[in-house]
Design brief:
With about 90 residues, the chain is mainly alpha-helical. The protein has a single domain, classed as Orthogonal Bundle (Multidrug-efflux Transporter Regulator, Chain: A, Domain 2). It has four helices and two strands, in the order ααββαα. Helix 3 packs across helix 4. It comes from Streptomyces caledonius. Pfam families: MerR_1.
C-alpha cells in the first residue's frame, strides 16, 4: 500500500478511503499486504484528480464508477455496431 500511495502521490489513508467506499478492492498477499492492479491504480489516480479539485471522496468515487461504466457501455456499443456492419 505504501508503494502504491507513493506512486500516486497520495497517502495510504486515501487508498483505504477508496477501499471503504468500495471503489477499489485490492487483493491481499499471504502476509496481508494490499496488492493493487494497474487498473485499480488508474482508477485511484482519477479519484485523486477529482478530490484534488475539491470533490468529496464519496462523490469522486461515484463519479469514477459512473465514468468506468460509461466507458464499458461505449465499448460494447462499438462492438455491436462493428458486428452489425460485418453481417
Amino acid at each position: 500500500m505504501g508503494r502504491a500511495a507513493e506512486m500516486l502521490g497520495t497517502t495510504p489513508a486515501f487508498l483505504r478511503a477508496l477501499g471503504e467506499a468500495r471503489l477499489i478492492t485490492p487483493l491481499r498477499s499471504t502476509g496481508g499486504h494490499r496488492r493493487y492492479s494497474r487498473y485499480q491504480l488508474r482508477i485511484a489516480a482519477r479519484a485523486r484528480e477529482l478530490v484534488d479539485g475539491g470533490t468529496p471522496v464519496d462523490a469522486a468515487c461515484r463519479i469514477v464508477a459512473l465514468e468506468d461504466q460509461l466507458e464499458e457501455a461505449l465499448k460494447l456499443n462499438e462492438e455491436m455496431r462493428h458486428r452489425r456492419g460485418a453481417s
